[in-house]
Amino acid sequence: MGDQVPGFDAVPLGAPGSKAPLPPEINVDRFDDGVVLCELPTPYRMGWTNCWLFVGDDDVLCVDPGTDPDLAAEHIGAALAPHGRGLDDIETILVTHTHPDHCAAAAGLAERTDAKVAIGAPEIDLITGHPGSPAPVIAAWQGLGAPPEEVRRAARRKLPYSPVPVDRIHPLPDGGQLQAGGRRWQVHLVAGHSPGHAVLVADDIVIAGDQLLANVLPAVHFGPPVRTSNGEPPVPGRSPWAPSVADFLGSMIRFDEGFDAMTVLPGHGPAFQGTARPIERARRYHRVRCELVAAQLSKRGSTTVWDLAVGMYAGLVSSDGVDRRFASAAAEVAGRLEALHYAGRATRTSRNGVVLFAPAF
Length: 361
Prior knowledge:
Blueprint: E1 27-28, E2 35-41, E3 48-55, E4 60-63, H1 69-80, E5 90-95, H2 100-103, H3 106-113, E6 116-120, H4 124-128, H5 135-144, H6 148-156, E7 169-172, E8 177-180, E9 183-190, E10 197-202, E11 205-209, H7 244-251, E12 263-266, E13 271-273, H8 276-300, E14 303-304, H9 305-312, E15 317-318, E16 321-322, H10 326-342, E17 346-351, E18 354-359
Helix pairs in contact: 1-3, 5-6, 8-10, 9-10
């Protein structure tokens, strides 16, 4: 058996999911007083990011202000005006995770409103632009078996947003609370889509970010290990990257029970009721994709992530190099190989910094 991820053993990677129908999808179009949806345009494929505003008696909580601080200020100000509030009433900006469609406007909007920026403890270094040495990034990409030019390209990547000053950060530990927008929120830090995604729960509302979506399956994260859920430095391990798929599936255990009557406010698409449908859809999808990776691994025997990904996504590779989408494909293959390892179906060894996977016979 491989190393264990908490909760992951409750989601076995056996045959693809059952034939039972998915739970009904219930979209929610009306919200309680004090909950305002401000849809923000982005330059990315998904189009719009949901910026949720919670208007309390004493303050406003702004969730995920999108990509452009000027555009965010304009749209958010207009959304708050009918409620007798303005930008100056925003005291807290919650960044659910450090993807630019959610966080790129946070620094500018925080400076304009003098708000604090609340974010999960594992992602503080990412939002402040203080990841330290590029060595962990280099190790992660070398671990994939990536060609030297791809490793160098990864090491040269710049932060795709303005960093938030450290003195504006309000760190959120797993299991902690945040008082903002007239509610006391319980903090759940979950990994998979990002290394420390914050999901907040209060009363019958779930701020889900991209962890739970009505119509889209969240992509999985690839990167070196980050701080723990309580902000401690990364724990050294045998793998140079975080086990994204196993983390993602394991984190869903938290939302299996007690959420049926809750309104889920996602980062994209419509709000909906209950968590059962997106969780079951994600489990089915990742089980099927893990089986495909397992079948390819069985044919190849011992292999690097990069070589296996090249075999599975040959259309993204040419004599001129790899398509920009190939890095995401390789990241997903890495996550699924790790998941198979944790399930005891693949072995993992390391040779000169390169991780090798093989079927566990």
